[in-house]
Amino acid sequence: MTGLRSSALSDSPLINPNKDRRLHKRVPLHLDGQVLDTDQADHPMSTIDISCSGAMILSDFRPESGAQVVCYFNELGRVAATVIRATPTGFAVQFRIVDHKRDKLADRLTWLLNKDQLDLVEDRAASRKPESGPALLILEDGREIKCRVLDISLTGASFEAEDATPMVGDTVFAGNVRGQVVRVGGKSFAIRYVRQ
């Protein structure tokens, strides 16, 4: 019989691989993406199973146990993680996220697991948080778009352009974040984060 887990466990960066101490049950779900290592290099990966607290990842990249990585899931967005063990086909990670983001991640995973069976239509990938501040986006051809951030989420963001807006389908860059324009209306436009 498994005893109650202490709250200190969730704060521990490493988990004993010989015991199943997962805080949340993992479910089989295939999600493609990239993992960013400590040298800022991207490596292709996909999930074997996942929960709102961690994932088993299939990848040729083999980080060491305890390594800090950033996972970019095409359907979830950016999640910071700690590697807890390597496997012959990849590695397992524990997500490093605050409780309210974990709740949003759980909601998104639930939607992804049920969307095909229930024939769900996606309205918005994740709830957005209102933001305000200047931003500079760069198009693939090098043109700059000066704008203001309207809101952000785990999977995308919306902006209000000072001058010309990009077109739907355009790829834009905000620092090292890549996005695709999915909606334009007047001076406002929205992007979805993309890792390819």
Structure characterization notes:
- The chain has helices at about 10, 100-115; strands spanning about 25-30, 30-35, 40-50, 55-60, 70-75, 75-85, 90-95, 130-140, 145-150, 155-160, 170-175, 175-185, 190-195.
- Mean pLDDT is about 80; it is low at about 1-20.
- It has two helices and 13 strands, in the order αβββββββαββββββ.
- Strand 11 and strand 12 form a beta hairpin.
- The strands form two sheets. The protein has a six-stranded antiparallel beta barrel with strand order 2-3-4-7-6-5.
- With about 200 residues, the chain is mainly beta.
Strand content: over 45%
E-strand count: 13
Overall average residue pLDDT: 78
How helical, in percent, are the residues? 10-25%
Q: Pick out the low-confidence regions.
A: 1-22
Number of helical runs? 2
Tell me the Rg in angstroms.
Answer: 18 Å
The class by helix and strand makeup works out as mainly beta
Shape: elongated
Biggest sheet strand order reads: 2-3-4-7-6-5
The SSE order reads HEEEEEEEHEEEEEE
Sheet with the most strands, sense and barrel status: 6 strands, antiparallel, barrel
Through-space gap between termini: 44 Å
